[in-house]
Amino acid sequence: MIRSPTVGQVSAFTLLREDGTELPVELIVNAVGCGPQLTFNAFARDMTVLSEARAAQRSRDATCEAVFANAPIGIAVVGLNGTFERVNRALCRITGIRRAATGRADVSGHHPSGRPQRRRT
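Given the sequence above, the corresponding structure tokens read:
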């Protein structure tokens, strides 16, 4: 068995094309055989599309975060168990819910609507 920080590990590199543009690649090196018959195979994968997709996702995430944080309307992320996982400032202002630094809400003593219910007559 070969012990190496490179063999069997996926590594990311940026290669330089002849025209000067960069090419993000992922490289994995495998050892085949043993002793004098030992050879290495290297497989490179073009990561351009994945890199572009990740950058686009980061941009969308930043936009979503800005909308959530700065919206004039109350927004909450509710977990599957029905608890508020995250609330924005506007929802806290509207309902009086206290928000921890993590964005989690302390909703103890609050009706889900944030207001006492009225009976219709």
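The chain has a mean pLDDT of 82. Try to locate this feature in the token string yourself.
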